[in-house]
Amino acid sequence: VQLVESGGGLVQPGGSLRLSCAASGLTFSRYDMRWYRQSPGKERELVASISSRSSSTNYADSVQGRFTISRDNAKNTVYLQMNSLKPEDTAVYYCYARGGIWGQGTQVTVSS
Q1: Reduced to 3 states, what is the DSSP secondary structure of residue 87?
Q2: DSSP-derived secondary structure letter, 86
């Protein structure tokens, strides 16, 4: 079982990034999925979640209206579209499959 994130990088404030998380070794369409993030010195924070069939999504107040979580069960992939990025969004972003499966994380840095 493996989750592999990609799409992180350095972006200026106000910019956009799209993170991807590719799953393998599990029946992806049965799993609720989440994105978390962690900044240095801070606890890991739940950013967004999506149900197995995309019928339900939820967001942290800090990203509501700026981030969008989505998934493609045919591609075993979950996405996080991040718009209007702020310096405080800088963190390592982790993909999580409900049941305790974590990806390795991808760094997002928002800086001018």
Answers
A1: helix
A2: -
4, β-bridge pairs = 22
Closest CA to 85 of 6, 7, 9, 15: 15
Q: What is the pLDDT along the chain (112 residues), one digit of tens a residue?
A: 999 999 999 999 999 999 999 999 999 999 999 999 999 999 999 999 999 998 899 999 999 999 999 999 999 999 999 999 999 999 999 999 988 999 999 999 999 9
**DSSP secondary structure letters along 24-74:** ESS-GGG--EEEEEE-TTS--EEEEEE-TTSS-EEE-TTTTTTEEEEEETT
Q: Are residues 79 and 70 in contact, defined by beta-carbon separation less than 8 angstroms?
A: yes
CA atoms of 64 and 84, how far apart (whole Å): 11
